[in-house]
Amino acid sequence: METAPPQRRQNTGNATNMFQITLTCLISDNVKCNKVQRAFNLAGEILTGSLILNTPVTVNATFTDFCQSFNDCPTNGFLTLGGAAPARTLPLKDDDGKTRFFPQALVKQMNPQSRPQFSSFDILAMFNSVANFWFEDDNTPIRQDQSDFTFVILHELVHGLGFTSSWDDYINQVPQALTPDVTPTGASGGSGASFQFSEFAFDKYMVIMSTGQKMSDITAQLNAFSTGAGAQIRDINAFANAFARSPQYQIAKNTFNFAITKGAMGFLPQGETDLNNAVLLETSLNPYQQGSSISHVDFATFTKKSDFLMRFLADRGVSLGDAIVQNGNFSGGAVGPKLLRVLESLGYATQANPNPIRPATSTTSSSASSVILYHSVFNSVLLVAGMFFAIVMGQK
Ligand SMILES: [Zn+2]
User: Fold this and answer.
1) Which residues cross the membrane (predicted)?
2) In this structure, are 115 and 264 located in the same domain?
3) Which residues pair with 69 in a beta bridge?
């Protein structure tokens, strides 16, 4: 009965857009600024149709020249199209007893009754006005040298929803050792606190594909330093220096090798035990690329597949609607079946999984969870600052 329309875009449902976009458009072309705003609205409707959201997600978006604003200029034929991250993450006790940082957009959905002191924005997103974007309301078909702006927004908003690993090199200028984020311990954080390695919600599901080892086990090994030789250190630079001389540093260096080895890391969705069902992550980039490595799906595996959206490199000359049709024509549209499993694992409700398993704190009394949430207001200020997960376009 169902014949796919040639320009299938996405089932946006009949839902109202649950994404509230505050756009700062730093170009003088008002016509283009209006197209940018409309593309945001469309992307918000698409994600609203893929998820069940009970609380609006707020997005602070900027459209600006990356080369002028951030000195992020085209290099080697590559151009950064956009970047995004959760504006704030909040520590919650996960159902395995470990505390992880959850994106505010998700925490809001878990317990809308409690009203912790949220940051006013859930997602920070930047888009490069220099890029050659095609907009759905352009009157011409997309050209070979253009990228569909809605595609790019969707990709970035998914990062902002929590498709973000904290595993990165926080110590060296040239990446060579991988750890989760370094955060202050304890409720108050700030000065006087010691430090530890802290995972994001995403990291709970990360595995080493060759052995099935959970990345969280590696975090526990690394934190032997935080609770041991590093426990008395109160200065973050001293912590990093001492860690680099510790026995645990070799673990971080070994882990880094997985990040530059194709097929080495995966995301094993909640409830899955078969590694064949893991979503391969982007570990084929060598040298390692901050913002592109790890927090994307494996480029080769998911090209021409329904889960094409979260590859680090955007397609050129293909509109989002055509990409959906050409890459498997998934009935759910741009948010592919595996990506839905990832978002459900994090705790987002979907039509197929309206009651996802969530951190224990979300089901305890609202007072208990708000205490933890209030702590995070102090804890997470430094977290993800300057950490953006990008999508780039090859210009070759
Ligand atoms: Zn990305």
Assistant:
1) 372-393
2) no
3) none
Ligand 1 centre and the CA of 19: distance in Å?
A: 19
**Distance from the alpha carbon of residue 382 to the mean position of ligand 1, in angstroms:** 21
For residue 5, what pLDDT band results from cuts at 50, 70 and 90? Answer: very low
Residue 13 lies in a domain: no
Clarify whether residues 255 and 353 are in a common domain: no
Domain shared by 128 and 202, yes or no: no
Domain that holds residue 271: 168-294
Ligand 1 centroid distance, CA of 284 (Å): 15
How close is the Cα of 153 to the center of ligand 1, in Å?
10
Its pTM stands at: 0.89
Q: For residue 387, is it within any domain?
A: yes
Q: Are residues 25 and 102 in the same domain?
A: yes
Ligand 1 center–CA 388 separation, angstroms: 8
The pLDDT, as a whole number, for residue 363 is 33
Please give the average per-residue pLDDT across 110-133, as a whole number: 81
β-bridge mates for residue 61, sequence order: 23, 125
pLDDT digits (tens, 9 = 90+) for 183-221: 888 654 556 789 999 999 999 999 999 999 999 999 999
Note residues around ion ligand 1 (Cβ under 5 angstroms): 389, 391
Q: In this structure, are 355 and 249 located in the same domain?
A: no
Distance 160 CA to ligand 1 centre (A): 10
Q: Report the C-alpha gap between 379 and 117 in whole angstroms.
A: 13
Cα(254) to centroid of ligand 1, in Å?
Answer: 25
How far is the centre of ligand 1, averaged over its atoms, from the C-alpha of 28 (Å)? Answer: 27
Please count the structural domains in the chain. 2
Q: What is the 3-state secondary structure (H, E, C) of 93-129?
A: ECCCCCEEEEEHHHHHHHCCCCCCCCCCCCEEEEEEC
Q: Within this chain, do residues 141 and 27 fall inside the same structural domain, yes or no?
A: yes
N-terminal to C-terminal alpha carbon distance within the chain:
42
Is residue 30 located within the same domain as residue 159? yes
Contact in structure between 315 and 326 (CB atoms under 8 Å): no
How remote is the CA of residue 392 from the centroid of ligand 1, in Å?
8
**Strand ranges in 34-117 using DSSP code E only, listed in sequence order:** 51-52, 57-64, 78-86, 89-93, 99-103
With contact defined as beta carbons under 8 Å apart, do 324 and 8 qualify? yes
- 112 with 203, same domain: the answer is no
287 cis-preceded (ω within 30 degrees of 0): yes
pLDDT for the residue 365: 31
